[in-house]
Fold this sequence. Notes:
Blueprint: E1 3-7, E2 29-32, E3 36-37, E4 44-48, E5 50-54, E6 58-59, E7 77-86, E8 91-98, E9 108-114, E10 138-141, E11 143-150, E12 161-167, E13 172-178, E14 185-186, E15 199-204, E16 209-214, E17 218-220, E18 223-225, E19 228-233, E20 243-246, H1 250-254, H2 256-262, E21 277-287, E22 292-301, E23 303-304, E24 310-311, E25 314-321, E26 327-328, E27 349-351, E28 356-358, E29 361-369, E30 392-400, E31 405-409, E32 414-418, E33 421-423, E34 427-445, E35 464-469, E36 487-503
Parallel strand pairs: 2-33
Antiparallel strand pairs: 1-5, 3-36, 4-32, 5-31, 6-30, 7-8, 8-9, 9-10, 11-12, 12-13, 13-14, 15-16, 16-19, 17-18, 19-20, 21-22, 22-25, 23-24, 25-26, 27-29, 28-29, 29-30, 31-36, 32-36, 34-35, 34-36
Amino acid sequence: MVVRTRVLCLALGWAVAATSWGDAPMSPFNVGDRSQLFVDHVLVREATNVAFSLHPARKHPENPLVKADQPWEGWRLEIYGNVLYDEEERLFKMWYIGEEPEAFPHYATLYATSKDGIHWEKPLVGTFENDKYAEHNGVAEQVLLASVMKDNKDPDASRRYKMICWLQKDHGYHTMVSPDGLHWTRFSKAPICRSGDVITGYYDERLEKYVALPKIGHRVRGHNRRVFWMMTSEDFATWTEPKLVITADQRDDAGSLARIEEVRPILDVPDDPKLMRTEFYGVGVYPAESCTLGFVWMFTVNNNARYGNQEGPGELQLAVTRDLEHWERPFRVPCVPRGKLGEWDCGFFCTQSRALRVGDEVWLYYTGSNYTHGTPCLYRAEGTGRGTEYTGAIGLAIWDLDRFVSVDAPADGGSLTTVPVVFQGDRLEVNARTKPGGTITVALCDAAGTPIEGYEQSDPITGDELRHVVAWDGKPDVAPLASKPVTVRFEMKSAELFAFAFRE
Length: 504
C-alpha cells in the first residue's frame, strides 16, 4: 500500500522552515555528504506534476515474532523497551515486558536475544529473585519502558549499558546503568523531570547528546491530553528542562472518527462526541542521516472506559524533524498497516525506542494487540477473554533504506528542484525506482536555477537501485562543485525518487 498526496504545483514553492544541524547558515543549505529524504519539504523549492507518497512498512511474514509462551510472561507482551544489535557479540538484544500479575505485580523488564533478529530466545538470566519462579528472564523489577543503549565510549565499564526508563516504585522517570545489560543500578538520584508514565530515549550521534521524550500531560484545545516533550543531556546526569514538541492539532482531532470507525466492532463503549479527541501515547525514533524520523503512537479517544482511563484505538504515524524541536507529520495515516479486525495487531500499538538499520533496511520492532485501550481485559481478568480471546505480541516492520516517502512522476513527466545547497563529495547518488519506460535525469544548476556547464542533463537513470550513481556523458565527478551553492533539478517520468546524497 502506498499513500499518495497529489501535489499539482505547476509553479509552487515552499518556504524553508528549518536548517541543518549546528550553527550552519540557513541558506545555502548544507547537505554535506548525508542522504536527504523527502519526508519533509525543507529542500523542495519547486515541484511540478508530482505526488509525495508515504510508503508504509512491510510486515515480516512470520509476525508476531515474540509471543507470551513462558509462564512468567503472563497473557501478553509489549516491547515497552528497546532492541539493539551488539556488534561485539553479533547478537540482537531485546528488553520488553510481559504481564503476570501474581509473579510481577509491578511489572518487570524481561530480556531476549536473537542471532538473526527473527528467531528469539529467552535465556534464563533472571537477575533478581522471584517467589513464584526460581528461573526466569527478568532483569529489572518494577522497571518499564527500558530505552537501553550500549556505550563503549564510557571509560567506566560499570556504565557500559545505559537506560532511560519509568520506575514503577517511584512513579517517575529515571536513568539506570549496567555493566552487561542484565544487572541494573539506578543512576539518577531523583526523577529527571516531572512525571507522566511513558518515556523513550536514545543517544544522538550527530548531536552527541542523550535525548529523552517524556510524556507529560498538557491542556490542548480544551482537553488535558497526552503529549510529548523533549530534553537532552551531554553526560547522562544533568538534563535540560523539557520542551513541548509534539501535540495534537485540529487536523488530528478532525480525523478521529475515521480512525474509530476502523475498529468499531472491538470498541467496548459507544462514542461520546464531547470526549472524542486525539492524543499521543509514545514516540519511537530512527535517526536517519539528515533528519530524525518519529514513529508516533497515536491514541484516538472515543469515550471514557468502563473501568477507568479512556477507550479507543491506536496506530503508528510517521513524523520528521531536523532539530528535535519542530516536528512535521505530513501523512496522518498508519506508517505500519493496521491488521484486519481479529488479527493480532488490529487494536493498539507501541514501538521500540529506536529503530535499527540492518544492512540496507530499517527495522522497527513494534507491539500489536487485538484489543483497544479501554478493553476490560486490561483492568480485570475474570470473564474478559484475557489470554484467550485477547493478547498482545511483538512483531517487526521493515522499510528499504530511506524509502519512507517518494516523489512520484507520471508517464507524462514531472520535476522537482531543490533549494540552493552546498555539499561535500565527488559523486551524486540517487535512491530511486523507475517503471518500464521510465527515466530520471539530473541537472546541477547555480543558485538562480541556471544549468551549470557540463552538468546540464545527466545520462538517464533507469531501474530500481538504492544508489544510482549520476553521470554526465559517462562522467560522475562532481568534485569541482563541492562547497559551492548549487540547486539540483530532477526530471522524471514514471519514476519514484526517495532520496539523494553526495558522497565521497
